[in-house]
Amino acid sequence: MKSNLNQETARIHRLTSVLTAEQFIANLAMIATIIFWGISYVSIKVAVVEIPPITMALLRFLLASMMLLFTLHKVEPQSKLEKADLPKLVLGGLFGITLYFIFENIGAKFSSAINASLIVSVVPVIAIVLDVLFFHSRLSFMKILGVIIALSGSYLAVTANGKIEFNSSQFLGNILMLCAMISWAFFTLVNKSLRDKYSGLFLTTYETIFGTLCFIPLSLIEYKQWRPFSLIAFGNILFLAVFCSFGGYLLYTYALKRLDVALTTIYLNLIPVVGVVCGYLILKETVLPIQLVGGVITILAIVIINFEMVIFKCKKKYT
Length: 319
Known about the structure:
By secondary structure, the protein is mainly alpha-helical.
C-alpha cells in the first residue's frame, strides 16, 4: 500500500514538474521572436515614410534571403528539396511572406492602430480551427480556455477604453489586416505539414526565397514612388532583415517544431503588447495601466497552454 502511494506521489510529481530543456528553449525562442516582431512595427513605421511598402518588403527579404541561403549552405550543405514538396514550400512563402506583409503593410495604412493590433489576436482562433479541420488535432478544454484568455488580454492591451472603431473609412484596412492574419494561419499549418521532414533553417530559407521572388513583379507597381532614402531608413531595413526576418523566422520555426500550434499562435498575441511598450519608449506614445494588465493576462494564457502540454506529454509517457 505504501509502495503504491509512493509511486503515485512520484507520478504526480512528474506530471506537475516535468518541463524538458527542449521545450524551455523553444519557449525562450518564441519570447525572443515576439520581441523582435513587436519592435518591427516601429521600424516599419519609420521606414515606410521614405520607402513604399512592397518595395520595402522586397529589400528586407532580399537581404534576409541572402543571409539564410549562406547559413543553410554552411550548416546543412547536404540538404535537398524534394520535388514533391516544392508546391508546399512555394505556398509557405506566398502565405507567410508575400501575402502576409502586403496585407499587413497596406492594411495598417488604412486601419487604426487599435484595430490593426486587435485583429492580430484572432490568429489563435483561426489557426486552431484550421488545425482541427486539416490535421484533426485534439481540441481540449485547457486549449480553448487559453485562447479565450489570450483574446481577452489582447483586447485590454490594445483598447484601453474598451471601444473599437469599425467605421466605413477603416473597413478596407480592417479587412486587409484580417486577410494578413488568415494568411499567417495558413503559413503555420503549411509549415506543420513539413516540419518533421526538414529543419527550421531549411524551411525558412526556401520559403523566404520564394516569398521574395513573388515580391519582385509586385514592387514594380510602386516604381513611380522610388526615391533615394536615408541611412535611418536603411538601418531600419537592416534591423527588419537581420533580427525579424532572419533571426525571428529561424527562432519561430524552431519553436513551431517543438511546441503546440495553439501555444505558438497564442504567443503572437504578445506582439501588440510589445508594440505598445516600444511605442511608449521609442515613439513616446501613451500607454495606460489597463494595457499592461492585458499583457499579464496574455502571459497567463501562455502558462495555461504550457501546463496543458506538459500534462498531456507526461500522460502519454507514463500511462
